[in-house]
Fold these 2 entries.
Entry 1:
Amino acid sequence: MKRWLQVRRLDLGLLTILGMVLVMPLIRDWSITLPNLFGRDGSIIPLPLVLPFAMAIAVAFSLTTGDPLLERVATRPILLLDSLYAGLMALVSLLICLLLEQVFAIDLALEAGRNTLGYIGLVLLGRRMLGVQVAALVPIAVVLGLALLGISSNGAFYWWSWPFVPDNNLCSWGVMVSLLVVGMLATLIRPSGLPVH
């Protein structure tokens, strides 16, 4: 088990979480502007809402490590361990973000934690459908699409733009948790042909 954690780069995952904790207070007032396809003004996206891409990329990278041929014949349940690892990284990130918002009053921290769940879920789904090498691009593409299409002409986010709505939107939580759970379940399915890697 210790060797598997080393191969999956648990240290990188924990360092990424620490990096998010350190960076979040510094960027809480920063934002990026993207074109609004339905209005004249650009769409303002708070940077903390896209910071969880770092965690999704770290998880995607950790799933590229190891020897796929050896893991395919391993006696340990590698796919289950990968699924639990991704879920644990998402859960720890969410708890840390909850702590940042409740104890240190960091705005948008809970939304960032919520987004981490969905972004990691999208990585897992991307890994299963497109392969591990491009899995990290899936959450970036989905969120960019939602940023371009999910904002009305008056600059308000539609209800289905789940990464950008406030943390009291229960629908966004449902989408994020569902993405993570479905992604974790998809990770358990061994492809009939070549290994997932």
Entry 2:
Amino acid sequence: MVRRLALALCACTLIASIAVACGDDDAAPPSDGGENPATPGKASSTSDARSEPMLTMPASRFAISVDDMGTDPSTGNAAYMTDLKATYVLDAASYGKTSIFPSPAEGEKTLKQWGYLGGYETGLIPEGRDTAVLNGAFYVNVEVHLFSSVDGAKKAFDHFESRLRDSGRGQFVPSQGVGSKSSTWTLTEGYVGTSTVGRVYHQTVFRRGNLVAVVLTSGAEGFMKVDTARTMAGIIDQKALGQKQAVEPTPIAKASGQ
């Protein structure tokens, strides 16, 4: 199965079996940078945008987990569950198959040139699914990737962001930055379940040291704000900075990129 999360707004596909037909959008991010720290390719506006940690495998320990999402106050149980069908360990061969590269062979070659160490993809589903989403819950899908150098991660981030910018689909959203560099995009398309409530997507791609991460949130119009995706990305960033414990998740038998 080819990985599908990275740059979902431009690839017109989402993991977790959520399909979306991308529409053209006139809005586009500034291409020249300027002084706005939220401008694509510019430094984060967080208090620490300069730390460049060299992180080690496995990449999965930096991903968002069920434990990070807290509990349902009404039941005391976990508020989210892991989407096992959307959980994969990635290598250059499997991730190179994504549509952000011209071909699988070129994707694998490029990733190896960037010093790709490996990655991890997973999804989190709210208890109650779309019923819960209509009351403010949301789906989360994440990718985390590690490279052998900061320079390699920079090249990957720049490639991801350029694909988002050049796609003409989705809208750049100025927001508080996360990590060393970040970029956030949004798209409203389709409906939540069988309701008439629009489904809103926010996607943040960011880099911290030799880590590049992609976070995608999906929820109901009227509830979803850019801050949600930014907060989710912040969980990964806190783990990368050592501010939050980074624990390798229990291996899942099917979690391979093959």
